[in-house]
Amino acid sequence: MDEGHPKEQPAEHRTRSWWGWGWCEEALPDAECAALGALLPGLPADPLPVPRVADLDLPVPAVTVPAPLAPLVTADPADRAAHALGKAYRDVVRALHRTPARVPDLVARPRSEQDVADLLDWAGRTGTAVIPYGGGSSVVGGVEYRGEAHPAVLSLDLTRMDQVLEVDRVSRAARVQGGVLGPHLERQLRPHGLTLRHFPQSFEFSTLGGWLATRAGGHYATLHTHVDDFTESLRVVTPIGVNSSWRLPGSGAGPSPDRLFLGSEGTLGVITEAWMRLQDRPVHKASAAVLFPSFEAAAEAVRVLAQSGLHPANCRLLDRGEAAFSGAAADGSTVLVLGFESAHTPVGGSLAAAVSLARDHGGRPAPEPAGARGAVDSWRAAFLRMPYQRDALARMSGIVETFETACTWDRLPALYEAVRAETAAAVKEVTGAEGLVNCRLTHVYPDGAAPYFTVIAAGRRGAELRMWDEVKAAAMEVLGRHRATVTHHHAVGRDHRPGYDRQRPEPFARALGAVKSALDPQGVLNPGVLLG
Amino acid sequence: MDEGHPKEQPAEHRTRSWWGWGWCEEALPDAECAALGALLPGLPADPLPVPRVADLDLPVPAVTVPAPLAPLVTADPADRAAHALGKAYRDVVRALHRTPARVPDLVARPRSEQDVADLLDWAGRTGTAVIPYGGGSSVVGGVEYRGEAHPAVLSLDLTRMDQVLEVDRVSRAARVQGGVLGPHLERQLRPHGLTLRHFPQSFEFSTLGGWLATRAGGHYATLHTHVDDFTESLRVVTPIGVNSSWRLPGSGAGPSPDRLFLGSEGTLGVITEAWMRLQDRPVHKASAAVLFPSFEAAAEAVRVLAQSGLHPANCRLLDRGEAAFSGAAADGSTVLVLGFESAHTPVGGSLAAAVSLARDHGGRPAPEPAGARGAVDSWRAAFLRMPYQRDALARMSGIVETFETACTWDRLPALYEAVRAETAAAVKEVTGAEGLVNCRLTHVYPDGAAPYFTVIAAGRRGAELRMWDEVKAAAMEVLGRHRATVTHHHAVGRDHRPGYDRQRPEPFARALGAVKSALDPQGVLNPGVLLG
Q: Does the ipTM exceed 0.90?
């Protein structure tokens, strides 16, 4: 969902939730769900029960694989259910109501590139739809099958391919398999003193291959915001062969081959390996929080900061609603959370320069330590807890949506106002009551910013999905009208198709369709995502 | 050819050379050519005469345009001759021997996007090959027609579309027409206090559209090395319609549409406009030169510097041959030329940190001012003079080639040695005498570097092209064997096709072919470049 700074805990003693975010053990108990729900007037008193796989009426798999592939494949109901959906609000609600989308017939866990190629070959021969699956954290309908055109559906779970295969310490790069989850990747890099420092909110539950396929946004608020920039080369298994680019620090030889696969969301091939650019582990860190009287003044400060060349690692601007909601500021302030880090040189001077610049624009440093550290820590804790609270609210039939975008600075004030006003109006119209529409800037650039919106409203049990769909459609419409991207780092998937189709230049759509036909002639890879 | 730091002089009183680099007035007189040639044993005593258009035997144009297009088009012999070739060594030699490639039948100078679309429509109907032409500074055969498949050839000169159309001061961006030459672009931005700061060696003689189409390398030695990174959005006229991307500071919505056209070298469409990210004009600058006893030690220092996060704007490492040749150091030293710049904060501290780091790796700061400034200024003057000297040597039948590449740090020492040894051996074998093979690093990255090689040898009059081709083929073969890119910022054109075809992943080649067929169904755009 968003960039963060999570712990790298070993995960052995916990169980992944098949229907909701993350770990079963971290989900809010019923009483806490009810307490949270009580904050939103009009919700039922009791949470929907936690859904059980056994209650699903799973159809018999429509297909079997030939014997050589059998060891890679399972039809286990729990596996099939867990691979049926991503982790968007609509996914959670569908699971809660025991109405998941088409459940995959089979789940495959290849152990090698050859396994992947063999599975794609078989899928092409049989017309089986293949849904590449990393950690399954998509919030845009990226890992489910919708439609009728394919006789069977295979979820291709890459998480057995989870090794760092090679480390080039001199060039600070590593060859890594696509199926590695965030914490396991960092554990393997740590003995080399290296880190990818790519920490999306989904870090524990998403994979390198997933990040690459969706152009994930990571740790850095400025400069190198997307995982794209850390990609030195890719290996991609396409239905017509392996696409392997050379390891190059830079090149001008034709359009970048890697940039075609970055963001291809599993529609053109399966990313099995990448050489990734790494960082030395930072030893110098400094952070601060600055309070502003208004979002407008704060955004202006952030713009100047983004154009200053100071390159903060963290530069997150919380509007007053977001700051209040996350506990970063209770006094109605807008809060700027700043962080600098370096493996080489002290960063205190850069932080002081940034704070001074913020002060010039009406900012007031939060008092130490309860203030700065307090705001930073409160926000971070809330950030990592948020998806679990989202699930708790979903169980109470609350409506929760997060969406993000980016636009240039000249259009930011109008976009901010329009999204808040029109989304709030849609919430009112759809639910009959006021909701919360909060905003933060997660990434900033010299020429613009990426606002991230959170919508919370009271839904009506049984009508949650329709309500969510209508609010989301209204929000997507505002973004499109303002020519703000339909997604800065959540990807397109199936849910963002209307906005994406509007935004994508028509000749490029034709070009992408031609690429799809060339690389995936049977049309089996993630049908309905981006194209078709 | 390479990044630099040129003057923005008004150009009104000078005449562009139709056959050689830049301005006629800057070309070396015969006596200086002869003096230069005398440095290479075995060359003839007299230069080849400056070629005249009148001596060319131009065929009658094979095609005419319909009346509405007539005002856009000329068949003037001087125009046709000037658009027949780029500015590679082989282009100059062919002009000197009055054997240019197929001269275009017509030269068109559209004034608007609609003109471009109309011309492409006509070309598609008549099967006329269209060669998009900016400043014509290609050194890779990017602007000439080779082949027989098209009945006629049109050179599409974009330089009438040379305006900055809109400036967004808040977002520091401008909407600029593709045909603007470097100095005219900077002159239009200057009143706004803004600059693109993209200064290829060809700055005076190349256009924004050309930079974008070829992924040109610019001013910055680190961080944002290619013009790609400064591109906010593009307008591209393709034969099937206009491709217009939204202005976005960042996006994760599918594969980047702009990245498909960046590097497309005129094969997929004509870049008529771009929103470019700009910089505030720097007011703080500091530079220094550091001398090293060996290339190996210096490269190690540069690697650590590139990984330090200091981000020098200039970080050019000249090996002993290059340093001697350019006058940066006469004592056999390897020279590192460092420069920092900022619009916002003093850069003395960064320069001191970089010099200190270089010292830790055996570097010795050049004495001030004759040393540091001297080495920097000497190198810069030589850098801008170099293409004129190249032409002078060509007139003496010397052989001059420059080529550049990039590879990761782990492979740099082996690549450096292999390229120098094998290219020198090829020179010896082809010409029978020793030649110079010098190297500099022009751009550096955390994970690698971009070496730029210069080859100078004595050719034999009449056999220059064959000799050059053989030396170039040998060099390209070494690069490919070491999996170093065939070009870091010179582009592919027609001359680098063998290396490019070797480097390009096969599925991507198929994808690009499919894109070509979708966007340019008649196959009229820059045939033979990248594809076909």
A: yes
